[in-house]
Automatic annotation (TrEMBL):
<protein>
    <submittedName>
        <fullName>Chromosome partitioning protein</fullName>
    </submittedName>
</protein>
<dbReference type="InterPro" id="IPR025669">
    <property type="entry name" value="AAA_dom"/>
</dbReference>
<dbReference type="InterPro" id="IPR050678">
    <property type="entry name" value="DNA_Partitioning_ATPase"/>
</dbReference>
<dbReference type="Pfam" id="PF13614">
    <property type="entry name" value="AAA_31"/>
</dbReference>
<feature type="domain" description="AAA">
    <location>
        <begin position="2"/>
        <end position="169"/>
    </location>
</feature>
<dbReference type="InterPro" id="IPR027417">
    <property type="entry name" value="P-loop_NTPase"/>
</dbReference>
Length: 259
């Protein structure tokens, strides 16, 4: 399955969701390719930190070269430091490729062979590269943080997709990241106010949520593991949320205890 994680709004958790899903899927024994189309290269850094001469490797093997050569294959795929996960690193040269046809980008993003899952991280914007990544997906996840502005940007993404790629707009689902059980108890909390805006204006809302927890930062920056049985509530809730999300997408029942 090709899953693109996208949002015009920055900082909502796109890269974190990509890493969590990819690592959980990899722990299920699936072969996962993570494609980093974001100039901020968050997922590239996460998967390659500590690998010797990685800077040089990423100069030679990256998504920009894949776009130039018209294919994703061994010339641009890098083995990551995680078992069962490979990565196509990001590149600053993407800046010069924004005028590429989105149909061609879609074709290239769907070209890798031999993987069970492809996860695509995107820049927080709307351009031809993002549009190509949205067109390439079997499923598009758009993480949401609870701000009114986030609602406007979600509505904007949905409306752009409905105009440019109406069939793909049906594959766009909004995922409430930053969910707090505590705030859901107060009718006037910002979370409930924003939630009611989404419920009124947008159909494809996922019932599975991911918790707001500082553990996400520890996961991505300090390489801590997500564990169902962790005494750290945020960690345990996040592990449960990610398992639930994957089981919902793949119609599975498995629980990965640690990933
Ligand atoms: N569920 C969450 N709870 C708490 N913090 C979170 C959560 N998800 C992400 N974060 C934190 O929010 C920050 C932004 O997350 P992330 O980099 O994944 O967002 P992004 O949408 O990819 O950002 P960008 O648009 O810059 O690429 C990070 O510090 C991350 O640790
Ligand atoms: Mg990101």
């Amino acid at each position: 399955m090709v899953i693109t994680v996208s949002s015009i709004k920055g900082g909502v958790g796109k890269s974190s969701v990509v890493l969590l899903l990819a690592n959980n899927l990899a722990s299920r024994g699936r072969k996962v390719l993570v494609i980093d189309t974001d100039l901020n290269n968050t997922v590239t850094v996460y998967y390659t930190m500590g690998i010797g001469r990685i800077g040089e490797i990423c100069e030679r093997q990256n998504i920009s070269l894949a776009f130039s050569t018209g294919k994703i294959d061994d010339r641009n795929i890098v083995a990551s430091r995680k078992q069962n996960v490979w990565v196509v690193p990001s590149s600053l040269k993407l800046l010069d490729q924004r005028s590429m046809e989105n149909v061609e980008i879609k074709r290239i993003l769907r070209s890798p062979k031999g993987f069970d899952d492809i996860l695509i991280d995107t820049s927080p914007t709307w351009d031809n590269i993002v549009a190509g990544a949205l067109m390439a997906a079997d499923l598009i996840l758009s993480p949401v943080a609870f701000t009114e502005y986030n609602y406007n940007m979600s509505a904007c993404l949905l409306s752009k997709m409905q105009t440019v790629m109406p069939d793909q707009a049906k594959n766009l689902y909004f995922l409430f990241n930053h969910w707090s059980d505590q705030y859901s108890k107060y009718p006037t909390s910002l979370q409930n106010l924003v939630l009611s805006m989404y419920r009124k204006g947008i159909d494809n809302l996922l019932s599975v949520t991911l918790p707001d927890t500082r553990f996400v930062d520890r996961y991505t920056n300090f390489d801590e593991k997500c564990c169902i049985k962790s005494p750290h509530t945020g960690c345990a809730r996040l592990a449960a949320g990610v398992n639930n999300l994957i089981n919902m997408i793949y119609e599975d029942k498995k629980v990965v205890e640690i990933f």
